[in-house]
């Protein structure tokens, strides 16, 4: 499928999710990170040019904060707005129970906080992210944010847990480790097919030095997948 058709699939999913879940009464909207979320922001602006007067947006990364500010929208954080009406975000993979892998862009710590602060968490993605089990299509591994000085110790624990290929995420051209918006490092830990994501999440969170894990279990209420034929599959 061409990249323009994939972009169109992302756009369709994002537009429909905004139209069905962002209500005129909403005052605080959580905005995830990544390329699909750009369409979420575009739709919000397109639908209601007066949005800025009455709504605050809580971004989940430097990236989404920048796009919201460039669009002239009012930006806040969960410290000011701990009750978010709805959060819409992308995902790297979603299973049949709506568990998700997130953090391909390294923003899953803030994404999880803003999703948990919301009354409703909605996922938008293209059809490539729709799987029966996590690990089916997203084979790079579960993104794990770690405090920098602990990365080797955490990597060893992950290898002991069966993720032999757990790797520190490096910047382009191996210029050094990727550093998150929170000043931490990332390890991508493949676990093959993930049949019990909630148990894996619990086990990973017990490793000292782990800040947050890119497994979002039992959080999403609904997911929109833009399809190859221009339709949107809702789960
Ligand atoms: C960033 C994320 C993104 O939502 C995820 O990587 C999907 O991104 P895209 O919409 O570009 O495919 O979790 O941490």
Plain-language structure description:
31% of the residues lie in helices and 23% in strands. The protein is α/β, with parallel strands linked by helices and 235 residues long. The strands form three sheets. A six-stranded mixed sheet has the order 2-1-3-6-12-13, with helices on both faces. A hairpin with a 5-residue loop joins strand 12 (222-226) and strand 13 (232-234). Helix 1 crosses helix 2 (35-47). The two termini are 22 Å apart. The model has no long low-confidence stretch (mean pLDDT 96). Bound molecules: ribulose-5-phosphate. Ribulose-5-phosphate is lined by residues 32-36, 89-92, 102-108, 111.
Name the overall outline: globular
Task: Tell me the number of strands.
Answer: 13
> What's the rounded overall pLDDT mean?
96
**Pairing-aware structural class of the strands and helices?**
alpha/beta
Percent of residues in helices: 25-40%
Order of helices and strands: HEHHEHEEEHEEHEEHEEEE
Strand content: 15-25%
Number of helices: 7
Which segments are poorly predicted (pLDDT under 50) over 5 or more consecutive residues? Answer: none
Largest sheet: 6 strands, mixed
Distance between the termini: 22 Å
Hetero ligands: ribulose-5-phosphate
The largest sheet has its strands arranged as: 2-1-3-6-12-13
* Radius of gyration, in angstroms, nearest whole number: 17 Å
Keywords: Isomerase
Enzyme class: isomerase
Protein name: Ribose-5-phosphate isomerase
Pathway: Carbohydrate degradation; pentose phosphate pathway; D-ribose 5-phosphate from D-ribulose 5-phosphate (non-oxidative stage): step 1/1
């Amino acid at each position: 499928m061409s990249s323009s058709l994939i972009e169109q699939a992302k756009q369709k999913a994002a537009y429909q999710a905004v139209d069905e879940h962002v209500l005129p009464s909403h005052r605080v909207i959580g905005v995830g990170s990544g390329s699909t979320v750009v369409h979420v922001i575009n739709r919000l602006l397109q639908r209601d040019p007066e949005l800025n007067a009455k709504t605050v947006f809580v971004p989940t990364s430097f990236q989404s904060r920048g796009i919201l500010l460039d669009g002239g929208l009012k930006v806040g954080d969960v410290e000011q707005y701990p009750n978010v009406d709805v959060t819409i975000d992308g995902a790297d993979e979603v299973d049949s129970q709506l568990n998700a892998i997130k953090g391909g862009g390294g923003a899953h710590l803030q994404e999880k906080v803003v999703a948990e602060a919301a009354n409703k968490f909605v996922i938008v993605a293209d059809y490539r992210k729709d799987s029966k089990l996590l690990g089916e299509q997203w084979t790079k591994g579960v993104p794990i944010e770690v405090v920098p000085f602990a990365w080797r110790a955490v990597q060893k624990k992950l290898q002991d847990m069966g993720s032999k290929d757990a790797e520190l995420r490096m910047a382009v051209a191996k210029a050094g480790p990727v550093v998150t918006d929170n000043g931490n490092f990332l390890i991508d830990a493949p676990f093959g097919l993930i049949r019990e994501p909630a148990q894996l999440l619990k086990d990973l969170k017990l490793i000292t030095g782990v800040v947050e894990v890119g497994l979002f279990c039992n959080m999403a209420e609904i997911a929109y997948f833009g399809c190859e034929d221009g339709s949107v599959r809702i789960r």
